[in-house]
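Side project, low priority. Logging it here so it doesn't get lost.
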Amino acid sequence: MRRLFTMSSGVMAMLTAAAVAAAPFVPASAGTTPTPGASGAPSGSTAAGSMPGVVAQPDGWLVYTSTLASKLTLTNVQTATLNGQKAADGSCSSQGAGTAAAGSAATFEEETAFNPQTCQEKIVTGTLAPGDLAKLPAATGSVPVSGSASAPASPAAAPQAATVYRRAYIKTAWIDPLNITITSLADNMRWPLHGAGGTLTARVNPYKFKYDGWSSTGPSKIKFVTLAGNVGWKVHETDNFTNTDFASFVYTVFGVAGWVACGSPLTATAHFHHRVTVRGYRSGARGWAWNDSRSGACTDLVHHGEWNGYGWTS
């Protein structure tokens, strides 16, 4: 079984430093999980609160201490506690949606704490400053998927010298305890304004951490859907990623403490799901929606991020 620690020396140095700071742990054997003691409790267990990037509270909440938001200059900052949805397999999903007027600034949302028993999450939201966009992770090395279609003019459209276009995006990401984005999906669309005809264009950027151990279904086929009343269009995209390296890394480097922090699973398989929608209105307004979920080994240690705005992103 290949491991996540077959990575660049810079990232490995950071992970090793975190592991040393969290010592002493007894690393698990490769390809195994730690063995519980005779009482049923993990032998030599250490509190999950000592895991780098995650603090386990006595009330069941996991607090993520390494976040993207801490690097940003957010304005209009708000916090909230949201109720997620628990599936039959016990996994939790969360969702969000919104609209924004023409010319509005980009917005950002990130999960800062999660309760796996209740599927509740605490989030921080805010408006992104122009300089913040460069601080957010790009899908480096991803292979984008593009598509286009004809957009007929609205019957009520006034004659124009040239078609004016606007572009908008939504992106969601799953972020590990050391603030490394492990999967993301960006959904971009370009559309004509004010009832004019033209060309609809979309680009989808799926991303998985570039080192080994990942598989995915690939993004769904690009399909443009006309909004009710012919007021605009939307593109809905999905992708599903599966990995064993993340949990294997936690078991190997953090030993029993890592296994306990992961919920003492008997597997190393983890699943990360993305479902994102971008909407463009003839008026120039934009909209977005997402419904993402995680399930499997150690996924409670991974938190969610989302941002959307005008323009194009990877």
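Brief comment: Residues 245-261 form the longest helix (17 residues).
Revisit when time allows.
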